[in-house]
Amino acid sequence: MTNLRIAIIDDDSIFRFIFSKMVKKFPDVHTEVIGFEDGLQALNYFQANKEKSETWPDMLFVDINMPQMTGWEFMDEVCRLELDYVKNIPVFILSSSTSLADIEKINEYHFIDDYLVKPLKKTSFMELLHQYHHKTARVIKKPE
C-alpha cells in the first residue's frame, strides 16, 4: 500500500471537507489531507517544515481567490523564498474562475502542473490522482 499526503489551500471549509472525502475514496492508497484556509497559513507551514521532508505533501492544490494571501501571491512567495520542495511536487490551481487570464497565468510558474475548474468532477479528479500518485506516493511498510 502507498501513502499519499495531499495539501489543499482553500478558504472554503465546505470545499476542503468535500475534497478530503473525495481523496479518501482513492482506492488502495492511504491518504492524508492537510488543509489550509489561505496562502499565508500554508506558507507559514511550509517555511516551518522546510527541513522536515516527512511533513511535506506529495501533491498540492491551491485556490486562487482567498483572503490574507491569494493563490497567486502564495506562488510568488514560494518563488521568492526558494521553497524548492514545493516546486518539485505536482501543483494544481483550483478555481471557480474560467477567466482566460487566470488560466494563462499558470504559464508564469513553471512548476504548476494544471488548472482545475471547480466544481471538480469526481471521475476526472480520480483519474488525475491516479496519474500523479505513482510519481509521488510513498510506500508504507507494514510492521513486522
From TrEMBL:
SUPFAM superfamilies: CheY-like
Domain Response regulatory as annotated: residue spans: 5-133
Pfam families: Response_reg
SMART domains per the UniProt record, alphabetical: REC
Residues that span the membrane, as ranges: none
Keywords carried by this UniProt record: Phosphoprotein
Record-linked Gene3D superfamilies: 3.40.50.2300
A biological-process GO annotation: phosphorelay signal transduction system
Modified residue annotations for 4-aspartylphosphate: D63
Identification of the protein by name: Response regulator
Native species: Flavobacterium supellecticarium
